[in-house]
């Protein structure tokens, strides 16, 4: 169920009926594996074989609905490394030749974001379904061109933006609680991403090294806000059912003083209608406390970390009957009610969530590619389509501009519109 479908039907769904599936549930429970498709697997071409492209190859290999038919990158060492993961895939150095391959039905675009526009437009023009990693582009003009083309290509072609949380079952599950009022009146939101890494890639060739380190230059990089912050910002846009009205940002190179001009540490505050604010910070300098998203409301707080979620109720929140039986865990000094997607499926199979051995963990990318394949097979638009991808990209790129200029920037509604 995507966001539009849920909002349309939410009036007829009670909070109790949604929440009873958390009873005695363990957040590690995952949806059952998809059955092998009746028809042939979808032939995918992966363009861009850096770290992200190789992750795509690993995850696609685990999905019976997809087969990697072709791979492409202008950097030959990346192609050779990718061939060890997908030896059956035909290698290309020119994306245009890959697009002409009749075995390729769909494209996963995992190049640097500043290179997305030309390839994305060509892929749609060639009649290929397109999964475009987020952000859609590193500037607003290119992002709008890509999203508009994706919008016009529907319903014949599926366009999915790489907003992993938007199509992840756990985040969709928590959204049901938010939309039915379990949060109460939203007060503020907070998200962070902490991971110590330089982002720098080494190469003996100076020109190649510059290409590999596109993330370190403001001329080609959307910064931490665009590369990682976009996912949390999209979640807040989605859960609050609103778009930000302004953003204030700060950033600096605090540790990785190696000639880069992209900040290694950023903070931003996004303003939403009704006086709600989202505080965001990200750093490449320190890994402590990892990554999470929190929404604080008058009745509860929703806490999401990875593929896990908890709800911590206020003392004066209405006491629903299901809460007595729901599984609970310690969250710092509080007790959180465990929120888990698809617990009812496990119960239908005669299994007890939280008491069975946990299934193998699936990454967010796994669910994103699975969703992409399902949209192609069923013809249903992606829940992370052109508009969602564009609005998240606008949010992240304007935030990056505020960070780079250490200023407050106001959004206008026409910024988020697609014609």
Report on the structure:
- With 419 residues, the chain is an alpha/beta fold.
- Strands 14-15-13-12-11-7-10-9-8-16 form a 10-stranded mixed sheet. The protein has a 6-stranded parallel sheet with strand order 3-2-1-4-5-6, with helices on both faces.
- The chain has 13 helices and 16 strands.
Please state roughly what percent of the residues sit in beta strands, choosing from under 5%, 5-15%, 15-25%, 25-35%, 35-45% or over 45%. 15-25%
The mean pLDDT is 88
What would you say the CATH architecture of the domain at 3-25 and 184-356 and 387-416 is? 2-Layer Sandwich
Cα(first) to Cα(last) distance is 25 Å
Contiguous helical run count: 13
* Class based on secondary structure composition and strand pairing: alpha/beta
**The CATH homology group name of the domain at 3-25 and 184-356 and 387-416:** Dihydrodipicolinate Reductase, domain 2
Oligomer: single chain
Elements, N to C (H/E): HHEHEHEHEHEHEHEHHEEEEEEEEHHHE
* Biggest sheet strand line-up: 14-15-13-12-11-7-10-9-8-16
Lay out the secondary structure.
Layout: H1 3-9, H2 15-19, E1 42-47, H3 51-60, E2 66-72, H4 76-85, E3 90-92, H5 95-99, E4 106-109, H6 116-125, E5 129-133, H7 140-153, E6 159-162, H8 169-179, E7 186-194, H9 206-212, H10 223-240, E8 246-252, E9 265-271, E10 277-283, E11 291-297, E12 300-305, E13 308-313, E14 328-331, E15 334-339, H11 343-348, H12 364-378, H13 386-405, E16 408-410
Parallel strand pairs: 1-2, 1-4, 2-3, 4-5, 5-6, 7-10
Antiparallel strand pairs: 7-11, 8-9, 8-16, 9-10, 11-12, 12-13, 13-15, 14-15
Helix pairs in contact: 3-12, 6-7, 7-13, 8-10, 10-13
């Amino acid at each position: 169920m995507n966001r539009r479908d849920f909002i349309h039907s939410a009036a007829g769904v009670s909070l109790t009926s949604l929440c009873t599936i958390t009873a005695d549930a363990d957040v590690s429970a995952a949806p059952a594996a998809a059955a092998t498709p009746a028809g042939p697997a979808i032939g995918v071409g992966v363009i861009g074989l850096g770290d992200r492209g190789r992750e795509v190859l690993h995850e696609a290999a685990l999905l019976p609905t997809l087969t990697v038919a072709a791979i492409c990158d202008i950097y030959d060492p990346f192609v050779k490394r990718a061939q060890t993961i997908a030896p059956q895939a035909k290698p290309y150095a020119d994306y245009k030749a890959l697009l002409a391959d009749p075995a390729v039905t769909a494209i996963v675009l995992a190049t640097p974001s500043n290179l997305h526009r030309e390839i994305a437009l060509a892929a749609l023009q060639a009649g290929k379904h397109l999964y475009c990693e987020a952000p859609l582009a590193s500037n607003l003009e290119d992002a709008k061109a890509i999203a508009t083309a994706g919008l016009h290509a529907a319903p014949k072609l599926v366009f999915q933006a790489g907003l992993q949380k938007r199509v992840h079952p756990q985040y969709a599950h928590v959204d049901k609680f938010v939309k039915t009022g379990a949060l109460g009146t939203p007060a503020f939101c907070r998200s962070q991403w902490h991971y110590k890494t330089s982002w720098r890639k080494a190469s003996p060739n100076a020109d190649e090294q510059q290409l590999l380190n596109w993330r370190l230059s403001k001329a080609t990089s959307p910064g931490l806000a665009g590369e990682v912050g976009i996912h949390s910002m999209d979640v807040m846009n989605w859960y609050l059912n609103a778009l930000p009205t302004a953003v204030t940002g700060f950033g600096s190179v605090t540790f990785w003083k190696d000639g880069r001009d992209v900040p290694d540490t950023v903070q931003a505050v996004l303003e939403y209608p009704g006086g709600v604010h989202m505080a965001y910070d990200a750093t490449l300098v320190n890994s402590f406390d990892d990554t999470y998203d929190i929404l604080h409301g008058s009745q509860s707080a929703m806490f999401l970390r990875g593929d896990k979620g908890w709800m911590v109720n206020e003392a004066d929140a209405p006491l629903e009957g299901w809460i007595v039986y729901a599984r609970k865990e310690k969250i710092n000094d509080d007790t959180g009610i465990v929120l888990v997607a698809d617990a009812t499926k496990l119960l239908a199979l005669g299994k007890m969530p939280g008491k069975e051995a946990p299934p193998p963990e699936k990454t967010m990318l796994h669910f994103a590619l699975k969703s992409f394949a399902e949209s192609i097979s069923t013809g249903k638009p992606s829940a992370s389509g052109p508009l969602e991808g564009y609005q998240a990209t606008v949010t992240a790129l304007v935030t990056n501009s505020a960070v780079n200029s250490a200023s407050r920037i106001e959004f206008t509604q026409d910024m988020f519109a697609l014609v």
